[in-house]
Amino acid sequence: MTTTASTSAQGAIGRSPVTPRSGVAAVLHDSWVVAKRNLRRMTRIPEIVVFGLMQPVMFVLLFSYVMGGAIQIPGTTASSDAYTQFLMAGIFAQTVTFAVAGASAGIAEDMTKGLVDRFRALPMARAAVLTGRTFADLVQTAFTLVVLALVALLVGWRIHEGVLSALGAFALLLLLGYAFSWIGALIGLSVRSPEAATSAGLIWLFPLTFISNAFVPISSMPGWLQPIAYWNPFSATVQACRNLFGNQVGPVDPAWPMQHAVVVSIGWSIVITAVFSWLSVRKYRRAAG
Amino acid sequence: MAPAIQAENLVKTFGDVRALDGVSLDVPEGTVLGLLGPNGAGKTTTVRVLTTLLQPDSGSAQVAGVDVLKHPNKVRSLIGLSGQFAAVDEYLTGRENLQMVGELYQMSSRDAKARALELLEWFNLADAADRTAKTYSGGMRRRLDLAAALVVRPPVMFMDEPTTGLDPRNRLALWEVIESLVEQGTTLLLTTQYLEEADRLAHDIAVVDHGKVIARGTADELKAQIGGERIEVVVHRPDLVAEALAALTPYAKGDPAVEKNTRRITVPISGGAKVLADVIRELDARSIEIDDIGLRRPTLDDVFLSLTGHATAAEDENGEDGSAERKGRRAKGKDA
């Protein structure tokens, strides 16, 4: 290390500090650099991606084969095929919300390992560490959805409204996943231990995804729970996907958010993204050791 | 010439702990200031303020003439930071780590690539360039971390305990790198718990304790400040320590220091070799068996001890780490 020291430190490259890019260009450039880093990590730790896939695949198999025969969807006879059609939008939506866990654990890990300090001492866009992270999570979510859709097709799920509608549904799902990864970012910045971040990221997803129309019709829930389930951002996305996939059996629930599911879904995703990205970036700036 | 690093009256409290209690310092361009102190003294907090990672409650600071609080992003493009815990992404290769940092310093991706290669060669990491940092040894990671701090050849460098936890060979190698950087004109602020490190690398030393700079000067000045020579005695059995201390006390020109576990007594004296001979005769007369005795000039350890009333690194090493400092806890000074 010492033999060449005196010469190579004097090389010509990057001689003078470069002027930072400004505004949007800086955010985009730096986000992309950070996203590249996170995507590379995913290829180095394929376990994360594989285990991220196993859980939803298991849900597909368990729900359609084990519970499908017992749960009757209004307007159909109890059969595992009818339930599979009903179920799939719910599983897709649940899968994208698990992006929360990835973002929260990843960011908490960067905080504890000192990487966030490295980033914060660099002349880079402040938000980029987080936007880069959530973008990488979006890519992972998209990959997971593709695999999951293939598994779903294998167990008998079908789309009935054409490819464009189906793509629209996947776009809604990705939007929801992106929104939720910002919730994960805030959790990751708040707890500061990757283990705590994983559980804090997941625990509230269960009530959120179960008090919804994902696995059972909302009309079968007790009356006091129904408004919560109807206004659950998750329910709107599930309903919108059912419509777009052509998986809706019988009339759509008359509740307002269910009747306007696409708009409500988009609205929720935008609001969640806006609020949580603002909170996260603010928290990141203040993240003093 | 204006100092490359200047801090005035920095105060930072975490809860009811005053991590920084009015730290002022300046580092002239092209020199090395060693910030010396025990864990929890405020060294890391000082570095975090100067590197824009932490907002002080009050006080002001300039780095390379730029106000740290007003223009943090400008400061960031002029500094390199190498931390206590090697902050590299262990799932990226060495090359990818350095390229990423280069790109985030706003270099073009081509320059970032070329610079990464240059640094990998300089730090003897070329063979490991395309392995993930996870497979690196501790010394290699530390080198990679330092390389990351040097990507833009920053005129001002901050190193927070650069050699903590390294074996002697790697420590020496890193010292040589640091020395070559300084030769080329880099201004460096270095925190350390190792007196030896400060003695070797720093032009100037600021001793920090309880969030304050309690002494400042060159290593020689600080040693002269507490003056005199010392007699160091290691007795053969622990139960002899008390009696040996009694024998030495008449010769002492200051408070003796006793390390019970090593059976070592250090006493400031004046009179040199003659006093040493007297002491040996005295110990012999009392039949106190000794393993070692010698006359020595004060070390920075003595300086530290006499300034703070407690010793520095060695015995704290396995205890609190930098995160304790971040959380605002304060390592208790262990009295020798």
Automatic annotation (TrEMBL), chain A:
It comes from the Bacteria. Residues 47-287 form the ABC transmembrane type-2 domain. The chain crosses the membrane at residues 45-66, 86-108, 134-157, 163-189, 201-225, 261-281. It is a multi-pass membrane protein. Pfam families: ABC2_membrane (PF01061). Keywords: Antibiotic resistance, Cell membrane, Membrane, Transmembrane, Transmembrane helix, Transport. It is found in: Cell membrane; Membrane. PANTHER family: NODULATION PROTEIN J. Belongs to the ABC-2 integral membrane protein family. This is Transport permease protein. It comes from Kitasatospora paracochleata.
From TrEMBL, chain B:
The keyword Glycosyltransferase does not apply. Residues 5-235 form the ABC transporter domain. Residues 327-336 have a biased composition (Basic residues). It is found in: Cell membrane. The keyword Nucleotide-binding applies. Residues 311-336 are annotated as: Disordered. It is a peripheral membrane protein. Belongs to the ABC transporter superfamily. Drug exporter-1 (DrugE1) (TC 3.A.1.105) family. This is ABC-2 type transport system ATP-binding protein. It comes from Kitasatospora paracochleata.
